[in-house]
Every structure is written in C-alpha cells, then in structure tokens.
Amino acid sequence: MDDRFITIKEVAINNNCPECYNTNGLHFTFKQKFVETSFYKSLTTETAHELNCKTCETTIYPVNWTDDIDRVFEYQQRAFVPKKASFKLKKTAWIAIAILIGIIAVGIAATVFFN
C-alpha cells in the first residue's frame, strides 16, 4: 500500500524566516493524502501543511512560527480548498470481482441443477 501526500497548493509569503531572516524564501505547502494499492486508488480528506524556506533550505516547524506567520497561515488555511475525496477501482479489482461473481453463479447453478 502506497500512502503519500500530493501537493494541492503552494503559497509564497513575505514574512521573515525565523532561521535566516530572509523575506523572499518562505513557502506554505498544502497537501492531501493519496492512497494507492494494487486494487484501488483513493484521494482522502486528510490534509497536511508544511512551511519551508527556499533560501536556507529548512523546514520551519510551528513551534518556531512568529505571530505574523500564524496569522498568514490561518488566512491561507481558510482559503485552501482541498480536492473532493475520490475512490477508483483498478483493473485487478474489477477482474477479482468478475471472478467472484462467476464462482458464485456457478455455485448457484450447480445447486439448482443437482437438487
């Protein structure tokens, strides 16, 4: 099973980086969980966010956020609209379902024919 987060929205903000104090490098990334198995693909409602500085190449954790970054994050989080959750069966799932229906049909036909 392959669980990963896909990027839905990335926003550049003009706040000072708490690490390098640059004003041009901060980016919020909003992601949504994508699950893929051999039988199905699914986009879930689970979301995640991340703040990175492209200048100093570091991840800024919420503990280090300033009040200004918190306010910008709250605004961007309200503006973020995740994609609609979806579920799609793959070809192997459809084949397994067809085989299962075939086995059930043969079982029913055999009980009707031999009784």
Summarize the structure.
With 115 residues, this protein is of the alpha+beta class.
If you had to describe this structure to a student in words, what would you say it looks like?
The chain has 115 residues and is α+β, with helices and mostly antiparallel strands. The chain has 2 helices and 5 strands, in the order E-E-E-E-H-E-H. Strands 1, 2, 3, 4 and 5 form a 5-stranded antiparallel beta sheet that branches. A hairpin with a 3-residue loop joins strand 2 (26-36) and strand 3 (40-53). The mean pLDDT is 89.
User: What Rg is obtained from the alpha carbons, in whole angstroms?
Assistant: 24 Å
Count the beta strands.
5
Q: Portion of residues in helices? A: 25-40%
Query: How many distinct helices?
Result: 2
Query: What percentage of the residues does DSSP assign to strands (E)?
Result: 35-45%
Enumerate the spans where pLDDT stays under 50 for 5 or more consecutive residues.
none
Helix and strand element order:
EEEEHEH
Shape: rod-shaped
What's the story with the biggest beta sheet? Answer: 5 strands, antiparallel
Whole-Å distance between the termini? 44 Å
Mean pLDDT: 89
Structural class: alpha+beta
Task: Please outline the helices and strands.
Elements: E1 2-12, E2 26-36, E3 40-53, E4 58-59, H1 67-79, E5 86-89, H2 91-114
Antiparallel strand pairs: 1-2, 2-3, 3-4, 3-5
Question: What are the salient characteristics of this protein?
Answer:
115 residues, 5 strands, 5-stranded antiparallel sheet
